[in-house]
Write a structure and sequence with these properties.
This protein is mainly beta. 0% of the residues lie in helices and 47% in strands. The chain has a 10-stranded parallel beta sheet with strand order 1-3-6-9-12-15-18-21-24-27, with no helix packed on it. Strands 2-4-7-10-13-16-19-22-25 form a 9-stranded parallel beta sheet, with no helix packed on it. It is globular.
Length: 260
C-alpha cells in the first residue's frame, strides 16, 4: 500500500501501527513531499513507539518526511521473527529530530536489510539510544551519506552482534555521547563470527566534541571488530577522556584515515 502524505504539519499523540491495527505481513510506502515540507510530529506524554512493529510489517519505504518528537518518542519497535515480517526498511531523504530511539531491534530473526540514504538525524538528548541492537540477525544495515549530528546519548548500542556499514556522511556527538557502545553484561557468545566486522566505515567524517567517545566497550572478551577506511577522525574540542575505551578482544583498524 502506498500512502502519500502531502505538504503539511501533522501532530500525532499515539501509535500509528501497533498490535491493534489488524496489520499482518504489511508492506508500505510512506511518501512525503520532502522533509522540508512534510512534517510528522510525534508528541507522546510518556515514552512510546510511533510504530510498535511486533512482527507486523516489513519491506517498507519511508521517503521525504521530517519526523520530529519531544525526546520521549520512540520511532520503531522492531521485533524480528514471525513469517518474514519486521525486516527490510528503507529511509530515503528523511529527517529525525529529538527522538529517544529510532529503531529498537529485538527478537531472534529478521530485522536485517535496513537502509538510510541521504537522511539527517539530530537533537537527541543524553537519555537517547538511537539504534538499540539486541538481535544477532540485525545484519546488512547501511547508512549512505547520512548525517548524525548534535546527539548527546548513544547512537549505536550493541547488546548482540550485528553488522553496520557507513558510507560518507558526518557523525558529530555532543556532551557525553557515545557513537558505538557495547554495555556491561552482554553475552560474549552473541558477538563475532558472521557478524564481523561489527562496524565498517568508509569515508565518513567524525567530529568528536566535549567528553564524547567513538567506541566504548564495557564487557570483556567481546570479539567486536571496527574497520575505518579513509575517514576523518577529528577531535573538535575534546577534553581529557579516552575517545576509544576497549577491553581485551577484537580488532580496531584505521586505514588511510586522517586528522587524528
Amino acid at each position: 500500500i502506498k500512502i502519500a502524505i502531502p505538504a503539511g504539519h501533522y501532530r500525532i499523540t499515539s501509535s500509528l501501527i501497533d498490535s491493534q491495527s489488524m496489520v499482518h505481513a504489511g508492506k508500505f510506502t510512506f511518501e512525503g513531499d520532502g522533509w522540508q515540507n512534510t512534517v510528522i510530529e510525534f508528541i507522546p506524554d510518556h515514552e512510546s513507539f510511533l510504530f510498535d512493529n511486533q512482527q507486523l510489517f516489513g519491506f517498507t519505504r519511508f521517503s521525504g518526511i521530517d519526523f520530529r518528537s519531544n525526546n520521549k518518542g520512540k520511532f520503531m519497535n522492531g521485533v524480528g521473527g514471525g513469517s518474514g515480517n519486521a525486516q527490510s526498511f528503507i529511509f530515503d531523504n528523511c529527517k529525525f529530530s529529538n527522538w529517544n530511539s529510532i529503531i529498537s531491534s529485538t527478537g531472534t530473526t529478521m530485522m536485517s536489510e535496513i537502509t538510510f540514504r541521504d537522511c539527517k538525524i539530530n537533537g537527541s538528548d543524553k537519555n537517547s539510544v538511537l539504534f538499540n541492537l539486541n538481535n544477532a540477525q540485525a545484519v546488512n544495515w547501511r547508512f549512505y551519506s547520512t548525517d548524525i549530528e548534535s546527539v548527546s546519548g548513544i547512537i549505536f548500542n550493541f547488546k548482540e552482534g550485528a553488522s553496520i556499514s557507513i558510507y560518507q556522511g558526518s557523525i558529530i556527538p555532543m556532551g557525553e555521547g557515545v557513537v558505538f557502545n557495547i554495555p556491561t553484561n552482554v553475552d560474549q557468545n552473541k558477538f563475532g563470527g558472521g557478524n564481523n566486522p561489527l562496524v565498517n566505515c568508509n569515508g565518513a567524517r567524525f567530529e568528536m566534541r566535549d567528553k564524547t567517545q567513538l567506541i566504548k566497550i564495557s564487557t570483556s572478551k567481546v570479539y567486536a571488530c571496527f574497520d575505518f577506511y579513509s575517514c576523518g577522525m577529528g577531535g573538535y574540542n575534546i577534553t581529557d577522556q579516552f575517545v576509544i575505551e576497549t577491553t581485551d578482544t577484537g580488532r580496531i583498524s584505521f586505514i588511510n584515515c586522517d586528522n587524528f
